[in-house]
Predict the structure of Oxidoreductase.
Amino acid sequence: MTIAENNAVSTSTWSAYMRALYDNHEPPRALGTVDIAKLEEAAREKLKDRKEAFLYVFGSAGTCSTHDHNISEFNRWKIIPRMLRDVTHRNVETTLFGVKYSSPLLLAPIGVQGIVHPDGETATAAAAAKVGVPYIMSTASTRSIEAIAEANGDGQRWYQLYWPAHDEVTLSLLSRIKKAGFSALVVTLDTMLLGWRPHDIETAYLPFFHGVGVHVGLTDPAFMARFGLAPYPADNVPSWPYVPARQDELIRNGDEDATQRAFLGKEWIREVTSGVFKTWDQLAFLKQHWEGPLILKGIMCAEDAELAIDYGVDGIVVSNHGGRQVDGSLSTLYALYMIMQSPKVREAQASGRLTVLIDSGIRTGSDIIKAIALGAQGVLYGRPFMYALTVGGQEGVETQLRSILADFDVSLGLSGFKNLSEIYHKADKILVRD
């Protein structure tokens, strides 16, 4: 639960990726670019015949102002580079919840990955394992818990829980993820109901209502037993590509499979985004039935961070869901800054009782530096890997992960630092804000 203070002499492996690209005399094969803006446009072009799928990933709540604030706040903080320091050998390892990781980067939980690529979450989970980045699985996945665990192999994996309405379903999911080797539980708090997302509302695009993105439910014995049905096989996958009009036509024509999936999809969404809001005292149920780290995702103020400490959780993710839930919300980086003004939070973090992570707005290696300098111990990376999955599948995700880690490593060295302990909670020394 601390930033690793490893000063051992070891040549960085991440920056070697940049050198390899120069040696090859061409951009990365799977994506054709290392520019996030170009990658986003390539994903838009790839999905031009199914633009609703792209907009589902790209879009945010309301006017998208929160998404924009997430990006602009990172731009307001400036790094102060230091010179004539021997940072030839760098090490960006970190330790979270007693486990050493090769970097502070984690893959954020993003659902419905099967709408942008036929391999969906299994491609991303396999890529994460190959690169050595922890994979956080979404409850809204288009693959089962067991299938994603198999694809992830010996990789590190956490599970993001959309908290079910019924305890028996929650217990079933906790049992399954434990058996499948998921080591931490990330409970998303800001999605008890879906946000107001005009991109999706205007086209009535909600894949769950056709049984896409609900495979955790379809393969769950407790959920399926409520309808007198056996769970779907763990290797079951939705049809590709997902075209809503095609599914509607199948349902109109009496297709039994399409009709059942649509029914179960709607029931699963009622189960995990029921509109019934949980309260702090209900965390005791999760603590009673989960033995690993318990992390709350969606914390955006010091008061809630302090309550998390009071209720004995192990970590928080400072997150506004990538701007997808509340239009006009403050940015996550500024929320992190405000949370870190709390002596109670700082003390709990220093003593190892609380781990602080952040997501929403991470786009570059410099962004990672800024987040850690402001007190984050790890960062969750989201939309860019989805664009990479869209364009290049598993290889695309691997490429994008190596790209941001190379960017981080190079930027860290050029800023005059050789490990995370030299920047962790050092914002007053290495950053200025416009």
Observations:
- The mean pLDDT is 96.
- The first helix runs from residue 16 to 24.
- The CA atoms of residues 161 and 187 lie 5 Å apart.
- Residues 16-139+184-194+282-433 form a domain with the TIM Barrel fold (CATH 3.20.20.70).
